[in-house]
Amino acid sequence: MIQARITKRFPPQPDSAAFSLDIEFQAGAGVTALFGPSGAGKTLTLDSIAGFMHPDSGRILLDDQILFDADSRVSLRPQERHCGYVFQNYALFPHMTIRQNLVFAADRHPRLERHRLVNEMLERFHLTDVSGRRPHEVSGGQKQRCSIARALIGSPRLLLLDEPARGLDAPLRAELYSLLRRIREEFAIPILLVTHDLEECFELAEEMLILREGRIVQSGAPREILEQPASVEVARLLGISNLFEAEITALDPGRNTSRLKFQNQEISGTYFPGHLRGDRVWLCVRAEDLRAMRQNGARPEPNQVPAKLLRTSERPQSVRLEFSGDISVDMPRQEFERQKDNKDWVVEFPPDALRVL
Amino acid sequence: MAVNWFPLWLSLRVAALATLVSLALGLWIAYLLANRRFRGKELLDAVVTLPLVLPPTVLGYYLLVVLGRSSPLGHVYEWAFGGPLVFTWQAAVLASTLHAIPLLVKSARAAFETVDRSYEKAARNLGASDWRVFWRVTLPLSRRAVIAATVLAFARALGDFGATLMIAGDIPGKTQTAAIAIYDAVEGGDTLVARVLVLVLSAVAIAIVYAANRLQQRQVTG
């Protein structure tokens, strides 16, 4: 279990604006993703935990051991923190072979055990065949595995991964994900994964922390966060494309209904607890939840909004339709084949897919 | 007339010792300058650079003042080793060391600072002490630049004249190094000795600079 409360202010520099990091979280065994755009403070958070950055205030606890405490002026050296760290560029020592990289890291173990442990790790991470080569002589995937093996060989109590999938192509990415899932099973330690890839969070993380401008803006299971983003910023970070300014014109808890007005249209949704009639809100709908179809009859049916198709673009599983009014709809390809000659389109907003922020 | 080879051997021996001393001292100072933050850091850098910009006679004068027979340090040395430091070949080593050390510190500091910090971070993260990080990571990754700097430092130690003359003197068979012997030979009209020593020293210098350049080129290309 890692518990961290970190604040750190960076005064403005000639080449960068002022930045402040102010975060608090805890994470147990399993993968916790630190998700956010570049410059949100994700790597700074890892560096504070690993002891490469000195926070102004706060406290970092790992399994009841204090790694850092500003009040009692405790700050363990990076060497004493036992945090495995997989760096963004892997940082494999270029003048050592793959084996020597692991031997260097196994220094904490008794001499006799070291040799056996290194062989075991080489075997486990499929590196035995290339153990005599230098890092620049092996493939990207092998470098990747070596850096993870090196971080794990010292039996860390926490694993920090800084964008491990960066620069890997799809097959290597898949390989990495299955490797990390295996590590999650075999090592019962907290794993903090820095990423700005949402799919990665869904692939690997039980929990995710969304960072923005040095703050945690939302935390929870990836599925829950996607279901109910806490703010329009989070929704944007999650890549939710349909965000509309709207007004709540009616709320009925008894019948679990509501009415929303946006872009001069009125549609109904489910009851939104915690909101009042007349609230100005953000209406948020995922593109795959919307349905587009040909207008039947002279007038659109309830919850259908007439729209003009502006553009279509291909996606791996679907076609994205972009309509007037900034409405995006993801449609399965087969259905699009049937509908592509439509002239008058309407977009249907299913009441239970509507979220307000 | 036979050429006396003693000055050449003395020069090589003095330069070799001076290189060793400045290597030990220079790497340490370079490490401090590259890795630590402390008060007076840039002052230390300036003081270490001084021998590069001061006339060698000024350097020799300082040495005489600090280590001469009437100075406190000179007294301590006499008490400890049973004889004065000045006008011995050890004094020549000291003069050559001071002459050579700026080159080493400058190059080594630059080399240490160009080592990608993430390697040092990784090493510390893996539990390596600062000592181990330096010997196993920083130094090996900058070894070519450091070796090249050491070779150049040797060449510079070999060529010291002014400071050596002032503190070690010109005692034939005792403290007369090649550079000083050449000066003496020219003064005394002994052109043969002067030519031979000049040629040998030039050849050594060219070989050294050539080797140092090759080392540095390979550092760049990988």
DSSP E strands of chain A, number = 22
Mean pLDDT of chain A: 91
Shape of chain B: globular
Instruction: State the name of the first-level CATH class of the largest domain in chain A.
Output: Alpha Beta
SS-derived structural category of chain A: alpha+beta
Describe the largest sheet of chain A. 6 strands, mixed
Largest sheet strand order of chain A: 7-8-9-3-10-11
What is the CA-CA span between the terminal residues of chain B? 51 Å
Report low-confidence residues of chain A grouped into runs of 5 or more: none
How large a portion of the residues of chain B is in β-strands, by DSSP E?
under 5%
Unreliable spans of chain B are: none
What summary fits the major beta sheet of chain B?
none
- Hey, roughly how much beta strand do the residues of chain A contain? 25-35%
- Derived from helix and strand composition plus strand pairing, the structural class of chain B reads mainly alpha
Bulk shape of chain A: elongated
> Could you say what the CATH topology of the largest domain in chain A is called?
Rossmann fold
Structural commentary:
The complex is a heterodimer of chains A (357) and B (222). Chain A has 357 residues and is of the alpha+beta class. Chain A has two domains: 2-230, Rossmann fold (3-Layer(aba) Sandwich); 240-356, no CATH class. Chain A has nine helices and 22 strands. A six-stranded mixed beta sheet of chain A has the order 7-8-9-3-10-11, with helices on both faces. Chain A has a five-stranded antiparallel beta sheet with strand order 2-1-4-5-6, covered by helices on one side. In chain A, α2 packs parallel to α4 (140-153). The two termini of chain A are 32 Å apart. The relative contact order of chain B is 0.16. Chain B is globular and about 65 Å long. Chain B has a single domain (6-221), classed as MetI-like (MetI-like fold, Orthogonal Bundle). The model of chain B has no long low-confidence stretch (mean pLDDT 89). Chain B is mainly α and 222 residues long. Chain B has helices at 6-35, 41-53, 56-67, 72-81, 89-114, 117-125, 130-141, 143-158, 162-168, 178-187, 191-221. Classes of the chains: A alpha+beta (357), B mainly alpha (222).
